[in-house]
Amino acid sequence: MRSLYIHIPFCNRICTYCDFNKFLIKNQPVDDYLDALIKELDMIPEDVIYTVFIGGGTPTALSNNQLERLHHFVTNRFEIASEFTVEANPDELTTDKIAIMKHFGVNRLSLGVQTFNNRLLKSLGRTHVESDIKRAVDDANRLGIESVSIDLMYHLPTQTLEECMYDLEQAVQLDINHISSYSLILEPKTQFYNQYKKGLLQMPDETLAQEMYEYTMDFLAKHGFHQYEISNYAKGDFESLHNKVYWTNNEYYGAGAGSHGYVNGKRYYNVVPVPHYIKAMKAGNAVKEVIPVDKEASMEEYMFLGLRLNEGINVLDFEQRYGVTFNAVFGTVVQRLLNEGQITFENNQIKLTNQGRMRGNDVFEKFLLTV
């Protein structure tokens, strides 16, 4: 049973840090896009799906009728076995839209909060303000959404440690059960990146970013949010099942412009521009590229995706999946990382230490078999 990601590439405003495949919704052929998207979804050769995640872009940028049309098709076409998540912006999440999603079985909302600081929200290009956040969370809970998650960002331009602390203090006062907290990365082709290259953007130093991360881990643990992945924290059993599909290197479908999937040992990528996607689907297929994932690449992905999880990876599972001795493939690098204090290795589980989490990308690179 595979999962499904559905991409809505439209936004009412382009954020200064975002490098995702997205377009301003004004004057876009949204209904034609939904026609193409529904056609692609209907081509999926399975009726039962483990998890569904509608992301973007901003799914809540759709009109009520458009949102209802999409959800109606998804829930009539597929039986969703567990988790049905939709991303939303706090200011766009009206009670009507929540009611539509609830009616069609959405049981998890992921709110793009980023920060509670209005000054920083403005610099990020967000369209909401602090007061919108609590209202959106309260409405979601009142209308019966089972799980509410928020995204936060730290290491923002001009952000202080005290401002990071304030965000966390406000977050734990909300009636939510999941928090994702990401360090800002300056991605090429974003407004922030261009400003930084011109010397117009002041970024906190890396030492402060590390302090923010350490504080986040400690603070959220004290307030009942257990860390289960490098950037993700949950109360009780409210971990993101959909994202764990990615981190455990399991297969999933991707639908929509610029989306990608992983099916039958192959990764596929759809065409990106909306008009090209619509045209491609009218011709019957929007896949731009298919890349077979060989055994070596799959083993690499298993390691650096699985190590993102606090539970780490299981050596016996690795050996059963790939039919090779773990030590023969990664024994040398594991011993080196053990000596450096980046990982632990007990009861056949390999996990990152706190020090390893701080340097996650450096650790993951060590598991590349060809560089």
User: In CATH, what is the class of the largest domain?
Assistant: Alpha Beta
**Major β-sheet annotation:** 9 strands, mixed
Q: Termini distance? A: 33 Å
As a percent range, the share of strand residues is 15-25%
Helix content: 40-55%
| Major beta sheet, strand line-up | 9-10-8-7-6-5-4-1-11
CATH structural architecture of the largest domain: Alpha-Beta Horseshoe
3D structure, described in words:
This protein has helices at residues 30-42, 64-77, 95-103, 118-124, 130-142, 161-172, 191-197, 206-222, 241-247, 274-283, 295-306, 315-322, 326-340, 354-358, 360-365, and strands at 3-8, 10-11, 23-24, 48-56, 79-88, 108-114, 147-154, 178-183, 226-229, 232-234, 252-255, 260-263, 266-270, 287-292, 313-314, 343-346, 349-352. The chain is an alpha/beta fold and 371 residues long. The protein has two domains: 3-246, tm_1862 like domain (pyruvate-formate lyase- activating enzyme, Alpha-Beta Horseshoe), CATH 3.80.30; 295-365, Arc Repressor Mutant, subunit A (Orthogonal Bundle), CATH 1.10.10.920. The protein has a nine-stranded mixed β-sheet, with helices on both faces. A three-stranded antiparallel β-sheet has the order 12-13-14, with no helix packed on it. The longest helix has 17 residues, at 206-222.
